[in-house]
């Protein structure tokens, strides 16, 4: 159990705060004077304080209902005799934050970690949801010295267009692909647009947000059943109230602390769940970053190794056909864990205080009437949903979401067609006279962490000429990421990235590239001495002159190590 003594009756985190204005007595007196101005009397300050990190922003539509979620957490804290105190942090809305939210994940992690440390509180609840917010909060939690729990806003509901069910954001790409291919006209794509994001909440498929919510539950950093209740549901608010109540208990007992929850067994359980849900490739980077902060040795190869005997069980887009509301109705993560039980570390205890085995024992498995959570002996897909590759094009590793790729491209050799960044891609790939065939391998570079903050640009569009001819997938290779809602035969996170002189930087149009997923390789079929010769004339791109971008570029770790800042 925890080394922390936790909240002691008769003391207040406000009195032990380290803000100082001279002598200790004067500092305490001043803190209480200012709090009194906000209505906090001495009796209020006798209670354990639960700090609640709020990430509401008009720029983050996924978090639009956070006031209701916050009220529910506060209700739980007050019911349990605690004092809730909300505080803001950076909010990263995936769609409107340029050039990419990934550039700011570490900044949000620092912000959250430092506010937890700076403000007087006995425990913290972190409210997030959209793609990078949950990873940032997990990273902050891993670096914190008080009990921390996460609560997510929950997924959005699906919409409907001409009788067809749809939702962000796998369908966003599918319909856009149809529009590029000439199947939908301008009016039709506008009318699709009105239905894609039909409610508040996070994307309604197994994208990065849903994946990270499921992994947070599997890691034990969230109360059971918290990953899947829709944002607009009463179940979401009831879960938030339970979280508030439990946070007060953690504040009183002083634990478990994040470092007691985030142990090797927790990460192995999370990787099993990642494989079973066909989760986002982005999770690999985020989980590596959290593990690094928690001091748990973890590497890319662990994902392949642990995932290699964990089949795909959850039928959600982009690997399947369902949506998060289906997964929730089927029992969500708790029901999935009952299926995975033989593969899990069942002694592990998370913030609920119960062991994984105890939680599984009191949970019904997937109901007979549903088909979203499959049974272990009869899975939806084979093991290896995420495959870790290496070879002469990515000596330190790359990743492909095999469960969302085209079977006929899993072993493919073709000539490279190179673009140097996402801005170049549109101009080149929309050219009606582009010399390209379905056998080409599209290569994009200078999109890694150092070059560009690692945007979700790796799922390059199919060249317009081929899209109109009905081609829906090609092999694509880059040092970028892709959205967890994307699909296709897309090799990502090539490490080392082009901007630091990785082999990607010297690929030329027409060079042959071989992808071999069964053998876990991605190779540039150019002789080693020729690659070495080309690399001798490599010139790194110019770096940012100032600000966060400069600090980030100078200190960010490679994707294969989680892309956190090296000093954190
Ligand atoms: Fe926020 Fe997809 S844009 S979760």
Automatic annotation (TrEMBL):
- Chain ranges of the Dihydroxy-acid/6-phosphogluconate dehydratase C-terminal domain: 372-563
Q: Which residues form the Dihydroxy-acid/6-phosphogluconate dehydratase N-terminal domain?
A: 47-358
Share an example GO biological-process annotation for this protein: branched-chain amino acid biosynthetic process
UniProt keyword annotation of Heme present: no
Quote the InterPro entries the UniProt record gives: Dihydro-acid_dehy_C, DiOHA_6PGluconate_deHydtase_CS, ILV_EDD_C, ILV_EDD_N, IlvD/EDD_N, Sugar_Degrad_Dehydratases
The segments labelled Disordered in the record are: 1-21
Polar residues bias locations: 1-20
Q: Give the enzyme's EC designation.
A: 4.2.1.9
Alphabetically ordered keywords of this record: 2Fe-2S, Amino-acid biosynthesis, Branched-chain amino acid biosynthesis, Iron, Iron-sulfur, Lyase, Metal-binding
For this chain, one GO molecular function annotation is: metal ion binding
Which protein family is named in the record? Belongs to the IlvD/Edd family.
Q: What is this protein called?
A: Dihydroxy-acid dehydratase
**Lineage of producing organism:** Bacteria, Bacillati, Actinomycetota, Actinomycetes, Mycobacteriales
